[in-house]
Write a structure and sequence with these properties.
The chain has 568 residues and is of the alpha/beta class. The chain contains 23 helices and 17 strands. Helix 4 runs antiparallel to helix 5. The longest helix has 29 residues. The chain binds phosphoenolpyruvate and magnesium ion.
């Protein structure tokens, strides 16, 4: 088995077609029959122009006119007398066509690549493409026509270029394996858009396989098998069927409300890290943003982001969500999240130290800048403020006081904002669970951060492998905390959500439903999965399993019982 980066989910099984890079070296000869050589060159150009125009036509139909223009430009370029005229002159002087083509193209490439202007530099790479294509014609090197590969083909190549990907016919390509590229590379993005399973960055795979070898690609796990035995093949054929069935089922949940089996309405929100991710949340049918981790603005920066810089980022997210709720968590730094230019003092125990809301309250100017940016963004949609790492009622009161001052200032300055902007508590410390009833009187909403709640409740450092066995949201201590927080929120009449990873855990969902969780904030790609699981459970069924596991003593028993009760 080969391991690579799981870049596009799903199981692909098929016959390998290697897209190898050709050897385009040639011997620079002098020719005596220059007329025949010119004729050979003319034919190569004509064939290239004809093929390029046909490909541009396809791209215009399948992708769009702008993309087709790029290829049409290539055809025009080689026909330009400034370029081909020079080449013909060299052939007349006795050089072979390959030499003439290479020399003139290289001269132009050298010239354009020196230029300041980005557009001009792009011409250098266009000329390089044209050179390679015409050289292939002259050398009789045939490229594989990706658009014509047989159904069930697995493409194996070093890297998938945009021109290769534009030729892919989705129905015929069962999978893609490359030697380079990561999750966000062009090939990964395209593979996901085409819903073709892909595993990238598998070192040496092109030389390790032959055409027509059988390949299995597990694009969810990043696994590749070449010529697998019968048992593995059968296992993956079943896995592929299950995946296809599941995907088809999930798609039926797109655009639907999140309803339990009894028809009670819940909500699936998304966790995002940048304003651009809000688009993803919308595309994945998220009903809001339950956690916008604002740290990115500070971490991907060389200076403290200004109020306007922050305002633009929050506004973009809020606008993209078209009026849906966007819960913006105020700066949660310190501990594992360092910001070089902020100069944090080294602490003996940073996870229990000067971080998140503690740091913000101690730096009110910096904090007010962020709060002002969020309050201003509320004029453009459903922005809410969420305070991380709360451990005392005073912290929430202090933040609310700062927000009141900001509102006062904005009113005086005549700047628009949402008068009703809410301030909620992130419930992620043992203290917050213990005083959830007190916090519920101060906060407009709760959102449970199980990632930290688990660590702080179990007194476990997530990064320490020796105690990792204790780090589980299914520990009775953590489950009781979650139940208590939700109950306190309900008793006070405020909404309770969850933005820790546990909100998307299929085993956890029935328990959360039973406890009364209103909003589940998950990675955008898990929106439909969570909605599908919720649809399968009635309140009575969720209560039955919750009653059972909440009476158990150990995490192992609880997980086993939840697995036994799980609904596929
Ligand atoms: C959490 O603690 O559960 C959470 C969502 O916050 P983060 O993972 O960013 O600490
Ligand atoms: Mg946290």
């Amino acid at each position: 088995m080969y391991k690579g980066i799981a870049a596009s989910r799903g199981i692909g099984i098929g016959s390998i077609c290697r897209l190898v890079e050709h050897d385009l070296s040639f011997e620079a000869k002098m020719v005596s029959d220059t007329a025949a050589e010119k004729d050979r060159f003319r034919k190569a150009i004509d064939s290239f122009v004809e093929e390029t125009n046909a490909m541009a036509d396809e791209i215009r139909k399948n992708i769009g006119p702008k993309e087709a223009e790029i290829l049409l430009g290539h055809a025009v370029m080689i026909s330009d007398p400034a370029m081909s005229g020079e080449m013909f002159k060299m052939i007349e002087a006795g050089q072979c066509a390959e030499t003439a083509l290479t020399a003139v193209c290289d001269m132009f490439i050298g010239m354009f690549s020196q230029m300041e202007d980005e557009m001009m530099r792009q011409r250098a790479s266009d000329i390089s493409d044209v050179k390679v294509s015409v050289l292939k014609k002259l050398l009789g090197v045939e490229d594989i026509d990706i658009s014509k590969v047989a159904p069930g083909t697995v493409l194996v190549c070093k890297d998938l270029t945009p021109s290769m990907t534009s030729q892919i016919v989705k129905e015929n390509v069962a999978g893609i394996i490359t030697e380079v590229g990561g999750k966000t590379s062009h090939s990964a993005i395209l593979a996901r858009a085409l819903e073709i399973p892909a595993v990238l960055s598998v070192p040496g795979i092109v030389d390790a396989v032959k055409d027509k070898d059988t390949a299995i690609i597990d694009g969810t796990e990043g696994d590749v098998y070449i010529n697998p035995d019968g048992d593995i093949l059968s296992k993956y054929i079943i896995k592929r069927e299950e995946f296809i069935k599941k995907q088809a089922e999930l798609k039926t949940f797109f655009g639907k409300e999140t309803l339990t089996a009894d028809g009670d309405k819940l909500e699936i929100y998304c966790n995002i890290g940048t304003p651009k991710d809000a688009k993803k949340a919308m595309e994945c049918d998220g009903e809001g943003v339950g956690l916008f981790r604002s740290e990115f603005l500070f971490m991907d920066n060389t200076h403290l982001p200004t109020e306007d810089e922050q305002f633009e980022a929050y506004k973009e997210a809020v606008r993209t969500m078209e009026g849906k709720t966007v819960i913006i968590r105020t700066l949660d730094i310190g501990g594992d999240k360092d910001i070089p230019y902020m100069d944090f003092e080294k602490e003996e125990n940073p996870f229990l130290g000067f971080r998140a809301v503690r740091y913000c309250i101690a730096n009110p100017d910096m904090y007010k800048t962020q709060l002002r940016a969020i309050v201003r963004a509320s004029a453009f949609g459903g922005a809410k403020i969420m305070v991380p790492l709360v451990t005392t009622v005073d912290e929430v009161r202090t933040v609310k006081k700062l927000v009141s001052e900001i509102k006062e200032e904005l009113r005086a300055e005549g700047i628009a904002f949402d008068e009703g902007i809410e301030v909620g508590c992130m419930m992620e410390t043992a203290a917050s669970a213990a005083i959830a009833d007190l916090l519920a009187k101060e906060a407009d909403f709760f959102s449970i951060g199980t990632n930290d709640l688990t660590g702080y409740t179990m007194a476990v450092d997530r990064g320490n492998a020796k105690v990792a066995y204790l780090y589980s949201a299914f520990q009775p201590a953590v489950l009781r905390s979650i139940r208590q927080i939700i109950a306190a929120g309900k008793a006070a009449g405020i909404p309770v959500g969850m933005c820790g990873e546990a909100a998307a855990d299929p085993l956890m969902i029935p328990l959360l439903m039973s406890f009364g969780l209103d909003e589940y904030s998950v990675n955008p790609v898990l929106v439909l999965t969570a909605r599908c699981i919720i649809s399968k459970w009635s309140k009575a069924e969720a209560d039955a399993i919750a009653d059972k596991v909440m009476a158990m003593d150990t995490e192992a028993e609880i997980v086993a019982a939840l697995k036994a009760a799980a609904k596929e």
